[in-house]
């Protein structure tokens, strides 16, 4: 009876440990970006500008910084300098993010150019896939962004949440901007599920092993 109680206690501990170590959301910075919308011929408007943290008032450490806490701190983006933004040739099309590995993602943070400018993204659909061709892609949902989340110098993040999904690549299919012939935005990042550190994973495995051993003993 004592062993049964101990096994139950360890099982509850293991469950609580898993819940606190494996489900925290951390900021994921894409490692690559590409588009079929064209990029302004001014070389300063590169696609990499929106994944390199340029213009952010507060930086983060990819796969370390807590996503919710970071967003709650309201990290703003300066979209005035062209080196901090991407600008297209065509108003609609696809903008793809390479996540640099396979992660479970659950939110997308977008820093528009703000100030209700005509180039702001308005409507878009997100697709997740484990290949750059987006074969068998998962539709994460259609969303509407706010074009006026602050002055162009201090644009706040707009966050879009969806069901947790495993992905290596994410496509933002932009279907409407705020009314002009080109589209632009300042920065993007994702919320990913934290993976337990090796030491934490070892502790979890030991707890599960102890539960199994005690249950066998009490049988």
From TrEMBL:
<feature type="signal peptide">
    <location>
        <begin position="1"/>
        <end position="24"/>
    </location>
</feature>
<dbReference type="InterPro" id="IPR008979">
    <property type="entry name" value="Galactose-bd-like_sf"/>
</dbReference>
<keyword id="KW-0732">Signal</keyword>
<protein>
    <recommendedName>
        <fullName>PEP-CTERM protein-sorting domain-containing protein</fullName>
    </recommendedName>
</protein>
